[in-house]
Amino acid sequence: MAVRLIECLTTDAEFSDLFSDESVLDAMLRFEAGLAWAQARLGMIPARAAEAIAEAAARGGFDTAAMAREARDSATVVIPLVKQLTARVEQTDRESAGFVHFGATSQDVIDTALVLLLRRARGMMAAHHDRLVSRLRQLSDEHRGTVMLARTMLQPAPPITFGYKAAAWFAGCNRGWGRVAGRLDEAIVLQFGGASGTLAAYGDAGLALASQLAAQLELPLPAAPWHAYRDGLAAMVAACGVYTGTLAKVARDISLLMQPEIGELSEKGGDSSAMPNKRNPAGCALVLAAATRVPALVAAFLNGMAQENERAAGGWQAEWATVSQIVQATGSAVSTLSQVISGLSVDAARMRSNLEATRGSVFAEKASMLLARKLGRSRAQAIVAEVLAESDLREGLAANADAAELLMPEEIANIDSAEDYLGSAETFRRRLLGED
Amino acid sequence: MAVRLIECLTTDAEFSDLFSDESVLDAMLRFEAGLAWAQARLGMIPARAAEAIAEAAARGGFDTAAMAREARDSATVVIPLVKQLTARVEQTDRESAGFVHFGATSQDVIDTALVLLLRRARGMMAAHHDRLVSRLRQLSDEHRGTVMLARTMLQPAPPITFGYKAAAWFAGCNRGWGRVAGRLDEAIVLQFGGASGTLAAYGDAGLALASQLAAQLELPLPAAPWHAYRDGLAAMVAACGVYTGTLAKVARDISLLMQPEIGELSEKGGDSSAMPNKRNPAGCALVLAAATRVPALVAAFLNGMAQENERAAGGWQAEWATVSQIVQATGSAVSTLSQVISGLSVDAARMRSNLEATRGSVFAEKASMLLARKLGRSRAQAIVAEVLAESDLREGLAANADAAELLMPEEIANIDSAEDYLGSAETFRRRLLGED
Amino acid sequence: MAVRLIECLTTDAEFSDLFSDESVLDAMLRFEAGLAWAQARLGMIPARAAEAIAEAAARGGFDTAAMAREARDSATVVIPLVKQLTARVEQTDRESAGFVHFGATSQDVIDTALVLLLRRARGMMAAHHDRLVSRLRQLSDEHRGTVMLARTMLQPAPPITFGYKAAAWFAGCNRGWGRVAGRLDEAIVLQFGGASGTLAAYGDAGLALASQLAAQLELPLPAAPWHAYRDGLAAMVAACGVYTGTLAKVARDISLLMQPEIGELSEKGGDSSAMPNKRNPAGCALVLAAATRVPALVAAFLNGMAQENERAAGGWQAEWATVSQIVQATGSAVSTLSQVISGLSVDAARMRSNLEATRGSVFAEKASMLLARKLGRSRAQAIVAEVLAESDLREGLAANADAAELLMPEEIANIDSAEDYLGSAETFRRRLLGED
Amino acid sequence: MAVRLIECLTTDAEFSDLFSDESVLDAMLRFEAGLAWAQARLGMIPARAAEAIAEAAARGGFDTAAMAREARDSATVVIPLVKQLTARVEQTDRESAGFVHFGATSQDVIDTALVLLLRRARGMMAAHHDRLVSRLRQLSDEHRGTVMLARTMLQPAPPITFGYKAAAWFAGCNRGWGRVAGRLDEAIVLQFGGASGTLAAYGDAGLALASQLAAQLELPLPAAPWHAYRDGLAAMVAACGVYTGTLAKVARDISLLMQPEIGELSEKGGDSSAMPNKRNPAGCALVLAAATRVPALVAAFLNGMAQENERAAGGWQAEWATVSQIVQATGSAVSTLSQVISGLSVDAARMRSNLEATRGSVFAEKASMLLARKLGRSRAQAIVAEVLAESDLREGLAANADAAELLMPEEIANIDSAEDYLGSAETFRRRLLGED
Predict the structure, then answer these.
(1) In the prediction, which pLDDT does B290 show?
(2) Cys-Cys link to B162, which of A424, B38, B146, D64 (CB 3.0-4.6 A)?
(3) Which value, in Å, is the radius of gyration of the alpha carbons in chain A?
(4) Chain C: nearest CA to B162, how far in angstroms?
(5) How far is residue A157's CA from residue D76's CA, in Å, rounded to a whole number?
(6) Is C4–D25 a contact, with Cβ atoms under 8 angstroms apart?
(7) Based on the domain organization, do B93 and B241 belong to the same domain?
(8) Residue A73 near chain B (CB below 8 Å)
(9) What ipTM was estimated for this complex?
(10) Which pLDDT value is given to residue D430?
(11) What is the pTM of this model?
(12) Per-residue confidence band for C277, with pLDDT thresholds at 50, 70 and 90
């Protein structure tokens, strides 16, 4: 199922496919077949019924368009799903048809299906994330000595290294993914509770059946059904929000440093329809677009959490769309950022020349502190400000009587040496990479 | 293009179709063909080129899947669109191919296409809204005399009429749609500015061409291109958020009054997969689900508004998906609520018996005010509270020495007459319906 | 009441004061006193009671801390307010005390008080807005001929004028404020309905009393009470969200153009605690900070709209804080942006030199279109791309055999003349200013 | 500092105090004094300077109103803070004044101060949480045998026990707090990086100083400064959002079950200003109000995460207000819910009678499954539906020929026994309490 045009900048083929009808239907049918097998194994239904149900589920040919349409009548897609599945079982084995969806409730199917899809999403996102951070580590190592301006509030600040910046990207992305993965691992559990969350339809055998079904689907069994408790999913989508926020931070940095007036980084970028030789930060724009949407989608999920009693009227019904859009946005963002970083060009010479173009002003703090040892801070800052108003910092200090008297010649000579003013940048870099 | 399963509770076939590939592609091609015709009319390109372009646009067979895929390379779907359209023109008329998308920019196409889709959405939503409010007016008229409990903070309060409640629903929905329609009318304008919003590619003829194109597409011409100014669309989606909020208010009321313990209203509702004879407020749940998502989607749009200079890197690229989801959610919500209201059952007897079951306690204010004329408020409230702690209000007052002395017998007899304590309910009802 | 430190970047003294305890209390007391006067005028209570109530309200000395604390017991601040007011009336006139808040409900007071505060907010915001747009118009006029690069996706694009840009800011801000003002005018109406919205406590005289009270408070009278219908306020806060989005768009532009590597604009800006001579886009940062919060706060308001029956349990109780924060954020943002614009420096020479530094590449479209007349678009674009890969556009074209043959010498000489490639910029500028 | 009236339903005295000027100022001064001591310990500044700075910080009398006002000039409160602190040091020791804030940057102070406040918030919230869950566990144990209707989509469903429901509340709250506490523990780390995050002002001694300062403030030292990496705080506020969502779920349940028509639970509740003997779910309303705001505030935080390079212009400046509002909303919500639960009345008899009032219809599933063993599901469901349309389930089955033949007399007699249809409710209850 192809990506829709209307969504083409907010998802990609890989993550859109995960939520295609085929994929969603398959996940729901895996629940129904798994349930039948589990029941058969425990002698609750005939083995033959389980076979018939599994076969009907596997046979294909469901009418998902009708399912989607009829879902609105009952506010659940499971009513038409069960109807179609039952009809298909009846075609081969009339007696087994009564065992379809036996004792389960709609939400058992829908939530478990979502969980099965999230399990796949986890692997897909992990692969992109791994590529991303592995390349970031490489960039950081390569550029441990590449000095550049820091920029705070979009204004130049004392130098850093690009290696340090890339390590901060690395660590931020890694923490972000770590939370997503952790929350996914907690959220990926079976949903199975029957009409009221007691599995009463199975008498005393509910828990045994739940265990069997969990084993069948290779899903952990939670303490209890969680029909009206959405905190596990909520924590997971919130983690996606945080991760996307960090991905967007990286994209914003790159898009800013790719401005031709700065020109320190560039992604391979995209064409313009009007200007033949323009390069746009197209990948960064897609990542930033994801981060424009995801925070709000996280809020949409949280908005629905105050669910009424044992099953909600409204809050829960909004979830499928919201979760799928968050996963698609996050997944396609990490995939895209990984490509951006793979193709990233670093212009170390430009980094150096931008630094030099500040004429030493970013070393004002350094000069002030050196002068302040003798003059006190306010006098020191006044001298530095005076010098910078007129000229280059180094030349100005050399020409300034006070400064020339108080500072050693090497201090003046090195006053604008970026390499001499990196502080703990390399230490922090290594710590961020987990090397210290 | 069918509704996807994953979205089946947050859109419906009608509104999903509006944003199908076919529909979106058609809107974009209408821009490209319209542009060519407008240019031909002004002698900017040969008439033959316009014909060839229009014919190629109409011929069908575009590969939208490829378009969606390639769009991610440049962060715009228009690059692959123009490529495909150009290739198709080349098939019939090589020389005309160079005139495709002549002097326009991606965003001209994308924004205008969105606007064309919104124009269709307006009509679709208006039809559902009209059905909704016409039935609400009817309900209000039918039940102008049907008394029921007001409920504040989910607790009983002095009576109202269902007619008054329905009139308040009516007026709220009407105000809501009025804002949506008004903001749509303002937002539905041509986008046409070329690379920098100056139409420089057309020399002095830019405005003339823009007028011609606007006429061609039957769209108003705004004061200037609005590539980086999204306030018109923002105001429109925000109006959808407000409208959906009111639709959800109605749905919440119905879902609460449909609780069997209250049982005053019921929608036709939906089946349960586990309980054969249960009726769920399925339609209300869908409307409430929409309102769980839309506020956040509105925020997603607003989040993207601080767009960089003449075209954004990120904020704008997020919009198509967001706007389409808001329109689908709002449109399907009004459609669903209209069905809920059409099938609404009103149980006037139950309304009366629920009122009586309060044993007069909702008339405590009335009794207190009557007694307060003589006793002062705090003493009056104390007597009423005392009476209600023991018995029914009317009986209790009759048996209370103070009350019996201070109140006239008819006052006591009518103390719990709902009809006698409706205040301005009917006046407000008529004002809400616009009848006074 | 001073701005709290924790909020000092998200509000300012003027707008914080509007929501100070003194101001809020005053608004609530105006309701209570106005109600008493209105009732006295209609003979519902003794004139003496109205005097006593008004006098007690005016006397000062209320314990707002206790009010705030006790408000949590009943989820309404009006219970302790009425208790304190009643006690104060009792001090001077025991008999009149029973007439305090006679027949009203908490929400009548709270909503009307909010409306009275919003009326003041309207004037305060209008004053800042007027200063803002008047200076923007001036800037636009002054710089109608100042050419600069357009920038799309943070990359250079064909030229515009700064006058055109400023006119687009002007028009965007104006549209934004127009919506806020319009929605305020609609939202600023009396709330008065009593316990159930029927004014039943006043028998047949409810509407007359409501009219009298509205006149007393100089507020329009709505069709009916709107206790559970929040669309008026919702539309107003949403309009603030849209307006703030546009203010932030202006701030983003300035902060980007103030990067020293671009250096075209600068606000007076702020100091850095670490770097003595650094100028930060401090005002822009505050406006952008507002726009980081407001969209979400708008969603918070919309989230609460599905209010239960005649008065909500939760959604409404969240509103005061949300509305006040939105108004403070919006109001302080427009105030701040107005200051930024007042102190804005425009470096026309830098605008020119940045344009020249592109070496003609932003005129690629123009060159391609000229060549395309003869060569077709793809061949034309290829030549331009080739030229630009090697050299400056003008020099390259002059040296290119094909180009030299196909273009006239003046065409080549003027190929990178910004003034020759402004299209309809001036026309659009004037239209945006409302001059055409 | 008292709670403001305008915020009185969205914070409380305890959590408002945490963010009072006194508290915020104290946290910032602890950073400045701690820095001075740490520098003195490492011999970077004279011990006497540290003493003077610490003494000046402790002396009191700062003008926070001026601080808040001047903060807007530079978009940071630290500029006026340092100015005031410096001036106060000068009063006692002119030479030491130059060592104030030596080598630090604004954000070091602001972020560390926030972290210190969050550490206090952790303890405050933990105390309320502990009370809440301890009472929930008690309720669950007391009511392990109290049967009640489950309610799904606001409609009756097969029975559960109130003990099971309370255990689900318990576990949900516990998971929620566990995440908040975990994310707080990760977020509560020192911020210290100087102008560019390299601590360059301290030469090679930056890391040693950072360690010393961390020890001084008893804060963990992170891998590196996190000026532009807000994921730790983001994850923390998101966890608050999830927790508040669950608190609101509990509040929604109680407010619904407190409807007099249901009457199964009631909180002590609040008064009404209009109706003397009404009890409102006031506590629940406050919790629900918190959950109306917090999701959006979480989004506001996430919106700001794409921070520019080494320090943001806008996104970061929005954080203090947002974090403090989230913490206040969450903290006051858990405090309030803890009070609600402490005073909760459970009406077991009403639970039973509501169950009986369904006339067996909630056992339809059970009856269908018993009949389905012999008749197949659709025939079984038809019989049950038929029976329920006419009468009570038990009586109807007894009178139905098919049913009477297929079911054993005890099966019919027990068909509507809630105790016989609780499935694994007690097992799940114990698992949720962590007892199995």
Answers:
(1) 98
(2) B146
(3) 30
(4) 11
(5) 17
(6) no
(7) no
(8) yes
(9) 0.97
(10) 98
(11) 0.97
(12) low
- For residue D11, the domain's CATH number is 1.10.275.10
pLDDT at D1 over 70: no
Q: Which of A320, A336, A355 finishes a domain? A: A355
Q: Does C225 touch chain D (CB under 8 A)?
A: no
User: Per-residue pLDDT averaged across D40-45, rounded?
Assistant: 96
| Short-list B241, B259, B245, CA closest to B151 | B259
Q: Look at strands C155-161 and C265-266 and give their pairing.
A: unpaired
| Residue C221: both structure tokens together | 């009278």
> How many residues are present in chain D?
436
Which residue reads 């701030």 in tokens?
C251
Full domain range(s) for residue C412: 356-432
* Residue-averaged pLDDT of chain D: 95
**Do D2 and D86 lie in a common domain?**
yes
Shared-domain flag, residues B347 and B362: no
Q: How far is CA B166 from the centre of its chain?
A: 18
Scanning B365-424 for CB atoms below 8 A from D yields: 365, 368, 381, 384-385, 388-389
Phi-psi region of D315 (alpha: psi -120 to 50; beta: other; left: phi over 0): alpha
Mean pLDDT, all residues of chain C: 95
Separation of alpha carbons B328 and B294, rounded Å:
10
Q: Closest approach of chain A CAs to the CA of B427, in angstroms?
A: 34
Region for residue D220 given its phi and psi (left: phi exceeds 0; alpha: psi -120 to 50; beta: otherwise): beta
CA C293 vs. chain centroid, Å, equals: 12
The DSSP call for residue C222 is P
Do B197 and B295 fall into the same domain? no
State residue B436's pLDDT score: 76
Query: Does residue C171 sit in the same domain as residue C287?
Result: yes
Low-confidence ranges of chain A (pLDDT < 70): 1, 272-277
Same domain for D183 and D62: no
CB atoms A290 and B318 under 8 Å: yes
pLDDT tens figures, C315-360: 999 999 999 999 999 999 999 999 999 999 999 999 999 999 999 9
Q: What local confidence, expressed as pLDDT, does residue C85 receive?
A: 97
Contact C326, C297 (CB under 8 A): yes
Catalogue the long-range contacts made by B49-56 (C-beta closer than 8 Å, 24 or more residues apart): B49/B93, B49/B95, B49/B96, B49/B99, B50/B99, B52/B89, B52/B92, B52/B93, B52/B96, B52/B97, B53/B85, B53/B89, B53/B96, B53/B99, B53/B100, B55/B92, B56/B85, B56/B88, B56/B89, B56/B91, B56/B92
* A282 and A391 both lie in a single domain: no
Where do we find the tokens 């007899």? B413
* Residues of chain C neighbouring A281 (CB-CB closer than 8 A): 153-155
Domain count, chain B: 3
Same domain? For A35 and A145 the reply is: no
| Touching C: B residues 9-48, CB under 8 Å | none
Q: Who among D155, D295, D357 is closest to B278 (CB)?
A: D155
Highest mean pLDDT (candidates B318-332, C366-380, D272-286): B318-332
Hey, are the CB atoms on D154 and B281 less than 8 Å from each other?
A: yes
Coil vs helix vs strand at D89: helix
Low-confidence ranges of chain B (pLDDT < 50): none
Residues of C with catalytic roles? 272, 311
Distance between CA atoms of residues A175 and A181, nearest Å: 10
Q: Which residue has the tokens 């064409």?
A: A271
The CATH number of whichever domain residue B329 belongs to comes to 1.20.200.10
- Quote the tokens at residue D215: 């020890």
A9–B321 C-beta distance less than 8 A: yes
Q: Of B303, B322, B355, at which residue does a domain stop?
A: B355
CATH code assigned at D389: 1.10.40
pLDDT of residue D376: 76
Query: What are the structure tokens assigned to C144, written together?
Result: 């109608």
Put simply, the answer to whether D245 touches A234 (Cβ < 8 Å) is yes
Contact between C259 and C350 under an 8 Å Cβ cutoff? The reply is no
C149 with C434: CB under 8 angstroms? no
